[in-house]
Amino acid sequence: MQNTSRLFWVAFLSTCLGIGLFRFSYTSLMPLLVEQKWFTASFASYLSSANLLGYLIGALLAHPASRYIQDKKLISISAFLGSLSLLLCAIHGLPEFLYIVFRLFSGIAGATLMVLAPSYALRRVEPEIRQRLSMVAFSGIGAGVVISTFIVPYAAK
Question: What total of structural domains would you count in the chain?
Fold first, then answer.
């Protein structure tokens, strides 16, 4: 069995990033971005759709991809690419299609984290710890949503 506390962090942070930040941080900023004329309201809905399409793609491809790339690497790559996509979305004035691509990749990365990381961690802990790890993993979603809906918009103002 691997270092249990590390696996708790992997599960918690992956769900925090995967759903909490990669999905909701940009969504909670949309009203402000529309107000400040970064995007129109209709284009903002396309960005949300691109992100959701990314989640569908990521959910469908995560397991098949894990046959070719180790789960540990795929989790790290997804966390990096999803974070990079959020940072790139913070650059003002890029062509609109790039924001679509960034939101798509954010969704793919988020779904990959959600599909792979909790099961990766659960497979590596003792059976008597699995229920607690599962609770911690899914509390990461709540923590990420709190960060996304309260802290990110407040910091953006």
Answer: 1
Cα 7 from Cα 117, distance rounded (Å): 9
Enclosing domain of residue 70: 4-156
Placement of tokens 């679509």 in the chain: 100
* Alpha-carbon gap, residue 8 to 68, rounded angstroms: 25
pTM over 0.70: yes
Which domain CATH number covers 75? 1.20.1250.20
At 33, list the tokens: 């971005």
Give yes or no for a contact between 111 and 135, defined as CB atoms under 8 angstroms apart.
Answer: no
Helix (H) / strand (E) containing 122: helix 96-122
What sections of the chain are H helices per DSSP?
4-15, 24-35, 41-65, 71-89, 96-122, 130-146, 152-156
Rounded to whole angstroms, the Cα distance separating 138 from 19 reads 10
CA separation for the pair 17, 21 (Å, rounded):
5
**Contact (Cβ atoms closer than 8 angstroms) between residue 84 and residue 22:** no
User: Tens of pLDDT along 15-61?
Assistant: 999 999 999 888 888 888 899 999 999 999 999 999 999 999 999 99
Chain centroid offset of residue 101 CA: 15
